[in-house]
Amino acid sequence: MNHLEKTFSDMEDTCLSFLHNNESLWIEIEVLKEDVDALDENQKELSDAVKAQKDNDQGVQIAQKKMNLTALAKAFNKANRKLCHQAKKTNNQVLLKSVDIPLSSFLYGEEKEILLRYNTVLKALRENLLVLSLYKFVKADADNLEAQLNRLIAIPGAISIMSGNQKAATRSIKELIDEAHTILDSLDDAVEGMIEDEEFVESWFVARKIKGRHNYKKAEKPLSFKTQ
After folding, report:
1. What's the Cα-to-Cα distance from 160 to each of 55, 65, 114, 163, rounded to whole Å?
2. Longest C-alpha distance within the chain, in Å?
3. Cα 7 to the center of its chain, rounded Å
4. What's this model's pTM, rounded to 2 decimal places?
């Protein structure tokens, strides 16, 4: 739920609280009661949709995955530079072609492609452990990189993908707010057209935060008409 949606939801709550605190003034007016009942149901469904969105919010997971990815990319890049140095020194073009991967390629792109790059480098590291000992890189270092990679893979969802449930909840929120607008517009007419208590009507539009819809206050000075 974004800021505008939250503001609208708060206004809807305020309107319903006001209506239920003053039930005696409208409960016998059937057409008005129907609108209030509809708004009550809308509020309940909106509350459920907001809860569903929060329950499926992957924000924390995505942030954690990005943080893990950054740390992993730096660690793999450091080990990979050792491989590249050795490949260039021994003119091993086959190895160099497979592992000469820039840091940015460990961070950006389709997740499937990124993981493929990590696995390619990890395989090459394990196959060249003997020579990499000269660079102070040993089997334990390769095992550590693999463990970090597995932790990244274990975090659900792709970084750029929102869960289906969250998308559905977001759509429901928009649809329910559109529906609430229609109900509230109907209530504006019903309140102003059928409630005789002017203080109630004034207070309703204060809750609705609508200015200039009506003006029941008497002018400080009566209007006067000059005659020629």
Report:
1. 18, 11, 13, 10
2. 112
3. 16
4. 0.49
Which string of b and e fits 7-45 if b means at least 16 CB within 10 Å? Answer: ebbeebeebbeebeebeebbeeeeebeebbebbeebbeb
Contact 124, 98 (CB under 8 A): yes
- Rounded to the nearest integer, the mean pLDDT of the chain is 84
DSSP assignment of 57-103 equals --HHHHHHHHHHHHHHHHHHHHHHHHHHHHHHHTT-HHHHHHH---H
The tens digit of pLDDT for each residue in 15-33 reads 999 999 999 999 999 999 9
Cα distance between residue 31 and residue 21, in whole Å: 19
Cα–Cα dist 75/82, whole Å: 11
Q: Does position 4 have pLDDT exceeding 50, yes or no?
A: yes
